[in-house]
Amino acid sequence: MAVLPIRTFGDPVLRVPAREVDDIDDRVRKLVQDMIDTMYDAPGVGLAAPQVGVSRRIAVFDAQDGDGARVLINPTLEEVGGDDWIYEEGCLSIPGHYWEIVRPAYARVSAIDLDGRPVTYQGEGLLGRVLQHELDHLDGVLLIQRLPARERRRAFATLRREGMGLSE
Ligand code: ZN
């Protein structure tokens, strides 16, 4: 078990799109296991590779539905839908802060798993939310960028006051 340090707001790795994984080799398998350990240790319900400083399209999540930890490699957001849903959302890279973020309730994501097999996850509630949040991370998007402009400016100002992050 290895718990990795989690990069926090202001770290440039969180703001760039991550690259596709070409080969699922031992390094990728080790990284995924460490990401799962790190997610549970935090504790959190999802973690994307850029959050541990690796700019690759890999994420893990546990939507607390009894299915345990799931792995997404090279995921694609196939569909979002349903009603807009306001949920008090946090992020392990912005510890101690929560914002009411509006996102579609439903999401469907396709990816490959650690064995290279195609997988699809879909649903509403926490599952739909965590899928959208983690896929945003792989595109270099943080949850505060999902806030309306005024609230976003206020959030950035708060974080800057706390010494987190240097620029938008
Ligand atoms: Zn996050």
Topology (elements, then pairings):
Elements: H1 26-41, E1 46-48, E2 58-61, E3 70-90, E4 98-112, E5 118-123, H2 125-138, H3 149-161
Antiparallel strand pairs: 1-2, 2-3, 3-4, 4-5
The structure holds zinc ion.
Residues 91-93, 133, 137 line the site of zinc ion (ZN).
Q: Care to describe what's here?
A:
It is a single chain. The protein has 168 residues and is of the alpha+beta class. Strand 4 and strand 5 form a beta hairpin. It contains three helices and five strands, in the order H-E-E-E-E-E-H-H. The protein has a single domain (12-161), classed as Peptide Deformylase, CATH 3.90.45.10. The protein is globular. Strands 1-2-3-4-5 form a five-stranded antiparallel beta sheet, sandwiched between helices. The site of zinc ion (ZN) has 5 residues, from helix 2.
List keywords for this structure.
5-stranded antiparallel sheet, Peptide Deformylase, 168 residues, alpha+beta, 26% helix, 5 strands, 3 helices
The total count of strands amounts to 5
Q: Low-confidence parts lasting 5 or more residues at pLDDT below 50?
A: none
CATH class: Alpha Beta
Structural class of the secondary elements?
alpha+beta
| Biggest β-sheet description | 5 strands, antiparallel
| Rounded average pLDDT | 96
Number of helices: 3
SSE order in H/E notation? HEEEEEHH
CATH-derived topology: Peptide Deformylase
Biggest sheet strand order reads 1-2-3-4-5
Rg result? 15 Å
